[in-house]
Amino acid sequence: MEIIIQPDVEAASRLAARFVARLIRDKSRAVLGFATGQTPLPLYEELCRMHREEKLDFDRITSFNLDEYVGLDPAHPGSYRTYMWTHLFGRINIDPGRVHIPDGLAPDIPLYCEKYEDEIRAAGGIDLQVLGIGTDGHIGFNEPSSSLVSRTRIKTLTVETRRDNARLFGGEKKVPHHVITMGLGTIMECRTCLLLAFGARKAEAVAQTVEGPVSAMVPASILQLHGRTIVIIDEEASSRLRRSEYYRYVYEHKPDWQKV
Ligand code: F6R
Questions:
Q1: pTM of the entire predicted model
Q2: Beta carbon of 37 within 6 Å of any ligand 1 atom
């Protein structure tokens, strides 16, 4: 894992946007994996700015989202479809035909999940997957105790995650219990993972992910076994890391050709 500590959310998000933009410029048919939630909002804002002001071209990219609530009307303000079209897709020149967001209303969910995996494979796999992390260490909605080799499937959210996500539902009780999420095995096949985490609330999950043992109880820790994971965090999210000085030192002494 490469751990990059930035002074604040803005600097971290700008750096993350440069990673995404570099991939798109190098590979016009790039396949991008997107996450939702609070964390990637400034990244998406910066990508929209790059599209507007620097002509970053999304025309030929393909996208796959990590997850979606089961049984929720896609037009609901809390759905991840609404989120993606509001914060990113509706503001860039992505081809709607190449956008993939799990269908939480699919009548046969196991069959649908297999199809989602097939679509990722048919697109050539995901080049870069944007990830946030839950306070309980989840990525996607692979909650603690998820199989470390799991594939896209239905999952039940923890009480903690439903509480964390209550904002757009007008109360915790209205947050759906189930989601469709890419599995940890699915995420591990992405060529690059870009994990973002901001704020003191995420510090413990980040420390366990980066420096703790690989464990299904901290699903994000499986990324220790991924060949190319970049973790971009702000100062607060880095506050529980034991080796933060070393990570800063590594980043400051990168050879020029490795810098973004
Ligand atoms: C959302 C997702 C989740 C979030 C995580 C953090 O698509 O996959 O893993 O990334 O719950 O959410 P925020 O960013 O709202 O703290």
A1: 0.97
A2: yes
Is the domain covering 2-258 a CATH 3.40.50.1360 domain? yes
134 Cβ closer than 6 Å to some ligand 1 atom: yes
d(CA 165, CA 67): 13
Distance 18 CA to ligand 1 centre (A): 21
Kindly report the protein residue whose alpha carbon is nearest to atom 11 of ligand 1.
134
Mean of pLDDT values over 86-103: 98
> Is the CB–ligand 1 distance for residue 143 below 6 Å?
no
Task: Please report, for the chain, the start and end positions of each structural domain, with discontinuous segments joined by +.
Answer: 2-258
State pLDDT tens for residues 177-197.
999 999 999 999 999 999 999
Model confidence at 3, pLDDT cuts 50, 70, 90, reads very high
Q: How far apart are CA 182 and CA 140, in angstroms?
A: 6
- What is the 3-state secondary structure of 70-110? CCCCCCCCCCHHHHHHHHCHHHCCCCHHHEECCCCCCCCHH
